[in-house]
Amino acid sequence: MKILLAHAAYQRRGGEDAVVEAEARLLEAHGHSVVRYRRHNDELRGRGPMGTIAAGIQTVWSGRSAHEIAALAARERPDVVHFHNIFPLISPAAYYACADAGVPVVQTLHNYRLLCPGANFLRDGRVCEECLGRSVPWPGVAHGCYRESRAATAAVATMIAVHHGMNTWREKVAVYIALSEFARGKFIEGGLPAERIVVKPNFVDPDPGLKCGAGEYALYVGRLSEEKGLRVLLEAWSHVGERIPLRIAGDGPLKEEVAAEIKTRKLSSVELQGQLPPSEIVSLMLGARFLVLPSVCYENFPLAVAEAFACGLPVIASRLGSMAEMITDGDTGMHVTPGDAAGLATKADWAWRNPGRLQQLGKAGRQEYVSKYGPEQNYKRLMGIFERVMEGKR
């Protein structure tokens, strides 16, 4: 099978970029031909006022990407085109190029951009669903939910509204891939056709193996940004005190604020590690006692949870979005109330003082990885999706 894989890489590399590369390697390892169409959001850097206007237009309809996808489809004749991030440089225009070429489209829904201009249903540090189900997400524009800019948010909202009016979401995508049942439910609630949305989680490859020992520190892995609950995390650790060492691995817009907060609160047990390569993240997980993810948004599929499960590392996470689905409280980890720093501190303290029970949770998490998040299970699901859209074409 030949698959055209299309993705606009992010300016700050994240889990989505890693997933795209992992899926390409997985398909190639099974003998399939993978043709890549890649743009990079670094193209947006340094644009002046006219460039910014042009970027807004591209968000709605990128003639360049449509032309390039059409040329690739004509030359390579793929069986299916699998889109990941299309925002803003690829745009839904590429779906039309695929339709003209007679190639079915699969779109993985890594975030909630088709329903929410800010992509994560978050405003002012809280879950916000004001735009959910609206053909024109005007509340997002009023609040400037994308990049804290009404103008930039208007471009995203226009893309959503225009393609809603053109029936793009219903007619030009053969199958949508949601990463969790929770996410699938939100997309159905937002108006996407239920019969075209399937669930396929992300996966972890290679297998890091089960960790040994109790672990020497708590660990946070992820983007340092508003939706991830970093402020809640640091407030919790001000209650925990010096008892539990905490390592924070990641980068993002709150990096300087997090560093300053650590100094202000005199959190000498907290160590900011910065952005690390995947091999070092695995090493950190194998040496940790538990992973903590205090997100205050609807996480779509935090890859760190699956990675922790693969290592046999239990997870303390907010009872919110897909995390409430992925983690079984008292079995593979523990839930905490989103935004509750005192509650998080209490759970972290209990976990630290009960390493034997924690190792039992870790082993249960490992079984979750083996049954749900390994590469072979993912490959079978992905091929089932591709075969479905090819059969639909026939």
Structure explained in plain terms:
The chain is α/β, with parallel strands linked by helices and 394 residues long. Helix 2 packs parallel to helix 6. The chain has two domains: 2-203 and 375-393, Rossmann fold (3-Layer(aba) Sandwich); 218-372, 3-Layer(aba) Sandwich (Rossmann fold). Strands 2-1-3-4-7-8 form a six-stranded parallel sheet, with helices on both faces. Strands 11-10-9-12-13-14 form a six-stranded parallel sheet, with helices on both faces. The chain is globular. The longest helix is centred in the last third of the chain and has 19 residues, at 355-373. It has helices spanning 15-29, 49-60, 63-76, 93-101, 138-143, 150-165, 168-171, 181-189, 230-240, 255-264, 278-287, 303-311, 321-326, 341-353, 355-373, 375-393, and strands at 2-9, 33-40, 80-83, 105-108, 122-123, 126-127, 175-178, 197-199, 218-221, 246-249, 270-274, 290-293, 315-318, 333-336. Helix 1 links the parallel strand 1 (2-9) and strand 2. 46% of the residues lie in helices and 15% in strands. The model has no long low-confidence stretch (mean pLDDT 95). It has 16 helices and 14 strands.
